[in-house]
Amino acid sequence: TNNHFLRSSKLINEKKYLHIPLVNKKNYIIGLYMLDLLSDKKIDDTIFFIMAGGKGERLRPFTNSVPKPMIKISGKPMLEYVIEKAKNEGFYNIFISVNYLSDKIKNYFKKGQKYNIKINYIEENKPLGTIGSIRLLDTKNSDNVIITNADVYTKANYRDILNFHNKTKSDLTLVVKEFLNEIPYGVVELKGTKFIKIIEKPSKFEYINAGIYVIKSSLIKYIPKNKKFNSVELLEKLVSKNKKVRCYLSYEKWADIGS
Fold first, then answer.
1. Could you give phi then psi for residue 64, rounded to 5 degrees?
2. Is beta strand 203-216 parallel, antiparallel or unpaired with respect to 144-149?
3. Could you tell me which residues are beta bridge partners of residue 146?
4. Which residues have a Cβ under 8 Å from the Cβ of 233 and sit 6 or more positions away?
């Protein structure tokens, strides 16, 4: 959690420890903070970009009058959780892409004064897909951009993701989450029309897109201007250009609050 992260930073700096284990109430190790992850250069210049322009059609009728990122979870808009987490982990330069019912978002968060950060808004005059609005950013003072969907809740640490991106010298880092894919039926294996065997309710672990990315600012040029463009298209384009795309494996709690 953010509090664990801050306490570990203090211990490492004061006691000159190289590692701080994170344990649960039963003293099982569930994480590890390391000196090289906690003492990197300041990240003030890194843009933290939140995609919040979607219509939230799967959440209707709740989103008929409220944009999806403003749906409240335990009394607080889900977008507020993302902003507060980013701020607590050292990101103060936040951009939010808005479109549907954008005034509801801007009137609530304003320019970030309440959170002691700077919030800027990118207006989509038309829907630009899951990643097209990134092309509207001015990134001349930022080497990297962290991108997250507004409806993604995660316990993964954004600083750790950025450090992984820098240490692996990646052009784009995609956060992936392990997901147990369960089929609630018996799966039949055939050879032509011949029955081979049946596997009852199989399950398999897969890696899914967690909706969080880090991209080098210099590669945003591959996103077309004012055109609907999705993250899958960007990944395919970068791979075709032989760019270095790496995956950060997240084992922390994660939820897509989209339906």
1. -65, -35
2. antiparallel
3. 48, 214
4. 129
Q: Are the C-beta atoms of residues 62 and 117 closer than 8 Å to each other? A: no
Q: At what angle do helices 78-88 and 102-109 cross, to 10 degrees?
A: 40
Q: Directed axis angle between helix 2-15 and helix 78-88, to 10°?
A: 0
State the Cα–Cα distance between residues 148 and 81, nearest whole angstrom.
Answer: 12
Dump pLDDT digits (tens) for 30-51.
666 655 554 444 455 789 999 9
Q: Rounded distance, CA 257 to CA 211, Å?
A: 11
The per-residue pLDDT for range 49-83, each reduced to its tens digit, is 999 887 777 777 777 788 888 888 888 999 999 99
Residues 178/252, Cβ–Cβ less than 8 Å: no
Q: Residue 87: name the closest of 179, 5, 199, 184 by CA.
A: 5
pTM of the model: 0.77
End-to-end CA separation in angstroms for the chain: 26
Cα separation, 223 vs 199, whole angstroms: 44
DSSP alpha helices (H): ranges in 24-129? Answer: 35-38, 78-88, 102-109
Tokens read off for 117: 């950060």
Alpha-carbon span 186 to 79, nearest angstrom: 40
Angle at 65 between CA 256 and CA 74, to 5 degrees: 45
Say which residue the tokens 């384009």 belong to. 237
Beta bridge partners of 226: none
Q: How far apart are CA 217 and CA 220, in angstroms?
A: 6
Residues 121-168 pLDDT 10s: 998 888 888 888 899 888 888 899 999 999 888 899 999 999 999 999
Asked if residue 72 lies in contact with residue 171, where contact means CB atoms within 8 angstroms, the answer is: no
Count the Cβ atoms, other than its own, within 10 Å of residue 169.
9
